[in-house]
Amino acid sequence: MSFSLTTTLPLFPLKQSTIQSPSISIPQNPNPKTQALFSNQLLSLAVAFVTLTSPPPSSLAIPSLNNPIQPPNLPSATTPFSQSKNLITGLDNGKIRPCPSNNPGCVSSNPKSSSFAFPWRIPDKSLDNALQQLQEAILETQKNAKIEIVEDTPDGKYLQATVDGNFGRDVLEFSVKGDVVSYRCMATKVTYVYPFTTALGDSKGQEERIRKIVDRLGWDAPSFSAMD
């Protein structure tokens, strides 16, 4: 014997919600006051429609994550330490450069240099092979010397060598023009002691280096001490 149970749920009618849009009744025979009121209603509806459909102003827009706002390019800060790491070598318009203002371990025969040294004069007997003699004197008197550049320029011959210094490698530059030798000798590494911004260095050591080379050559090298 079988039983079947059937339950009937009562049905409730659903009420539909109708959103009615605002309506404006247009009179058949409008008078001037009615026409003005009707025009104001149309204008209000138009303003409301434009306000709802217009995009937000740019000042209120949210920036896209795909295009983040980039910070402005600010100039990099320069310090005596950062400037000392970019020492420029080579001739400047055919002349030996002066000593950098932030490099106290330097001497130069350029008259604009604060650590000035007189140029050398080559004797007549050494004019033919002056550059070769200069290379030999550097290699014989300096520690771990290496000739880096030897080249002819429109303003004479240029020689560059590197040697061991107190804080790393020092660079020696020479310009041979006729019987005159201009030069610059400086440390390529400038040392600072925190928190001071004054570099450590001694041009006297560079003067002694140059003195050893010119004594080995036997060339004429005027000096301030010789004028006393």
Structure notes:
This protein is an alpha+beta fold and 228 residues long. The chain is 24% helix and 19% strand. The chain contains 4 helices and 8 strands; from the N terminus they run ααββαββββββα. Strands 1, 2, 3, 4, 5 and 6 form a 6-stranded antiparallel beta sheet that branches. Strands 7-8 form a two-stranded antiparallel sheet. Helix 3 packs across helix 4 (203-217). The longest helix is centred in the first third of the chain and has 22 residues, at 32-53. The radius of gyration is 44 Å and the shape is elongated. The model is unreliable at 1-19 and 74-81 (pLDDT under 50).
Please describe the biggest sheet, giving its number of strands, its sense, and whether it closes into a barrel: 6 strands, antiparallel
Order of helices and strands: HHEEHEEEEEEH
- Radius of gyration, taken over Cα atoms and rounded to an integer in Å: 44 Å
Number of helices: 4
Low-confidence stretches: 1-19, 74-81
Instruction: Please indicate the percent range of residues in DSSP E strands (runs of 2 or more).
Output: 15-25%
Distance between the termini: 142 Å
Measured as a percent range, the helix fraction is 10-25%
Mean pLDDT across the residues is: 74
Structural class: alpha+beta
The beta-strand count equals 8
- Label the overall shape: elongated
Q: Could you outline the blueprint of secondary structure elements for this entry?
A:
Elements lengths: L31 H22 L26 H5 L21 E3 L11 E2 L8 H12 L4 E8 L2 E9 L4 E9 L2 E8 L3 E2 L6 E2 L2 H15 L11
